[in-house]
Specification:
Elements (H helix, E strand, L loop, with lengths): L1 E2 L2 E6 L3 E6 L10 H4 L8 H4 L1 E3 L2 E4 H7 L4 H21 L1 E3 L7 E5 L31 E5 L5 E3 L4 E4 L12 H5 L5 E4 L2 H17 L8 H7 L6 H7 L13
Length: 242
C-alpha cells in the first residue's frame, strides 16, 4: 500500500517493509528526517518493522472511532516530528489524512532476515519511550511536502487542491506557485484533520461545523493546543501541548 510518498509492503509474521518512493525533483531525504528516532528507531536503518497493522488515517477512521486519547496521541507524535524537523531546518507545507500512517502495536528490532522473513534467534527490542502495549502511533510519510525553512518561511513548489478542507487560509487565497508561506501552515491543517476525524466517527458531531466541534471539546486539555494552532494569521499560530 502507498501512504503519502512511501510504499509499505506486508510480509509474513506481521512484518512490514518500507519501500522508498522517489521524492520530488532530485532532493535527497533520509528516513530519519520523516521518522524521529524516538518514534520509529529502526525504520531508517533496516526499513523493516513489526506491527499488528498499518493503514492510512483516512482508511482508519472508516472503521474506528476517533477518541480524545487518539487525538492526544496524534498531537504528541506530531509535536515530536515538528520539533525534529525544526532542528533539521525543515517544515511541512500542509497535511491531509492520506499522509498519515496509523501503526498499531509497533515493535522494532535490530535486524530482520529478509531471506526467510524471520527475526534473528536472539533479538533485542528497542526501548521505545511511551510505547505501551496496544499503542497507536501516528506518523507522517510524505517527502513531497517537506520544505527547507529560511527565516520561518518555506517555498512551496508543489501544486495543491485549493478546495481541500485541510489547507490553511493563506493556501486558499494564494494563486501562484512557487508560493512563500510561514512554516506554521502545517499546524493549521493538523488541527483540521483532527476535527475532521471527530466529525466522521462521532455520530453526535456529524452535523457540527469544525468550530462547533472545537467548542465541544472546550473542557479538555487539548482544546488550547487546537485553538492556538488554528489562528488565521500564520505569524500568530502556535503548536503548544498542554
Amino acid at each position: 500500500m502507498i501512504i503519502g510518498s512511501l510504499e509499505f509492503e506486508s510480509l509474513p509474521n506481521n512484518v512490514f517493509k518500507v519501500v522508498d518512493i522517489m521524492p520530488r525533483s532530485n532532493e535527497s531525504f533520509s528516513f530519519s528526517l520523516l521518522f524521529p528516532p524516538n518514534q520509529l528507531p529502526v525504520i531508517f536503518n533496516s526499513h523493516y518493522f513489526h506491527a499488528n497493522n498499518i493503514s492510512s488515517l483516512s482508511h482508519f477512521i472508516q472503521t474506528n472511532s476517533f477518541t480524545i486519547a487518539m487525538a492526544s496521541q496524534f498531537l504528541s507524535d506530531m509535536y515530536i516530528l515538528f520539533q525534529h524537523l525544526h532542528e533539521s531546518g525543515y517544515s511541512i507545507s500542509y497535511i491531509d489524512p492520506h499522509d498519515i500512517i496509523v501503526v498499531e502495536n509497533i515493535t522494532d528490532y535490530h535486524s530482520y532476515h529478509e531471506s526467510d522473513h524471520s527475526y534473528p534467534r536472539v533479538s533485542q527490542p528497542y526501548d521505545i519511550p511511551n510505547h505501551a502495549h496496544n499503542r497507536l502511533s501516528f506518523l507522517f510519510s510524505n517527502y513531497n511536502k517537506l520544505y527547507k525553512v529560511t527565516n520561518n518561511i518555506i517555498c512551496v513548489t508543489e501544486c495543491y487542491k485549493r478546495n481541500s478542507m485541510f489547507i490553511p487560509p493563506e493556501f486558499i487565497t494564494n494563486e501562484t506557485i512557487p508560493f512563500y508561506c510561514n512554516r506554521s501552515s502545517a499546524y493549521y491543517s493538523l488541527v483540521q484533520i483532527i476535527l475532521h476525524c471527530f466529525k466522521q466517527t462521532n455520530r453526535e458531531l456529524s452535523s457540527y461545523s469544525f468550530t462547533d466541534i472545537l467548542n465541544y471539546y472546550k473542557d479538555t486539555k487539548m482544546y488550547f493546543t487546537l485553538k492556538f494552532s488554528l489562528h488565521d494569521d500564520p505569524n500568530k499560530r502556535e503548536f503548544v501541548l498542554f
